[in-house]
């Protein structure tokens, strides 16, 4: 996914061109007595907040795959898949950063690799299976997180983006689970529950 | 009188007995995308959350709204938070909510078990 895939409604494009002046514009609208416009802008900043949480997830995923790739524990074929999935997450990251900026927000910064290693307990990863288990757990968590925030978006176009991100994460989880020989989910509506 | 007693008995039966084991399953499927019990990730670590003032998990970079919130997490405030975070603390960052009251109660019960170890 890249920036050109993101659909921004006309109001969002307008706000995007306003850049970092958006918050000030909301305050001005409120001061001018235009409460509806101020609320609309407030909704935009709520959406930006959710997108920034999503960006945090993507930073974490990119670094998790980096830790796996650097571990020396992955076989060549598995490493190739890990690098491919990492590239998907980089695509998500770039799209989210572009969208957050267009909406007048500030994208959350990536942390140092060591911070992710500590938070994900990378020192406990001793085998390829351990790494695949971690990756699958993160992908499933991201799937459920993206599905879970869809109703919170004020903008339906952004909700659709969350759905598309969830689809990619579900694809990753499915392939990782298959690689580990895990059974398919037997029930319908497994994800996002 | 009998009708009143019967109604009270029905109401008592309908009350949800919070289930920490089910809460753990819910936590793993719904919360671990962003949270861990012992690590600050996209969201703050949850160990010890019950009884903690909002916005004070050590080492986590909270939103200004959470930092300023005069909320101490107990079962009631956590359930309100999970039902609608933005309503409880406007300006916070969590877009995720848990619409079902029984799910919220079970999640809080699980978090309670992680607050006392």
In brief, what are we looking at here?
The complex is a heterodimer of chains A (193) and B (117). By secondary structure, chain A is mainly α.
Helix-strand layout with pairing:
The complex is a heterodimer of chains A (about 190) and B (about 120).
Chain A: H1 10-18, H2 22-31, H3 35-70, H4 76-102, H5 113-119, H6 128-149, H7 156-179
Chain B: H1 2-14, H2 20-30, H3 64-68, H4 75-83, H5 85-88, H6 101-113
Helix pairs in contact in B: 2-6, 4-6
Can you offer a commentary on this structure?
The complex is a heterodimer of chains A (193) and B (117). By secondary structure, chain A is an all-alpha fold. Chain A has a domain at 47-179: Ferritin, core subunit, four-helix bundle (Ferritin, Up-down Bundle). Chain A is 70% helix and 0% strand. Chain A is built from 7 helices and no strands. Chain A has helices at 10-18, 22-31, 35-70, 76-102, 113-119, 128-149, 156-179. By secondary structure, chain B is mainly α. Chain B has one domain (17-113): Cytochrome c-like domain (Cytochrome Bc1 Complex, Chain D, domain 2, Orthogonal Bundle), CATH 1.10.760.10. Chain B contains 6 helices and no strands. Chain B starts with a helix and ends with a helix. Residues 8-13 of chain B have low confidence and may be disordered.
| Class per helix and strand makeup of chain A | mainly alpha
Task: Determine the fraction of residues in helical runs of chain A and give it as a percent range.
Answer: 55-70%
Total domain modules of chain B: 1
CATH topology of chain B: Cytochrome Bc1 Complex, Chain D, domain 2
Mean of the pLDDT scores of chain A? 85
Oligomerization state of this entry?
Answer: heterodimer
What is the helix/strand order of chain A?
HHHHHHH
CATH superfamily of chain B: Cytochrome c-like domain
CATH superfamily of the domain at 47-179 in chain A: Ferritin, core subunit, four-helix bundle
Q: Roughly how much helix do the residues of chain B carry, as a percent range? A: 40-55%
SS strand fraction of chain B:
under 5%
CATH class of the domain at 47-179 in chain A: Mainly Alpha
- Unreliable runs of chain B: 8-13
Radius of gyration of chain B (Å): 16 Å
Distance from first to last alpha carbon of chain A: 26 Å
As residue ranges, the low-confidence spans of chain A are: 1-31
**End-to-end CA span of chain B:** 46 Å
Return the CATH architecture of the domain at 47-179 in chain A: Up-down Bundle
Element string of chain B (H = helix, E = strand) = HHHHHH
Shape of chain B: globular
> Which outline of chain A best applies?
globular
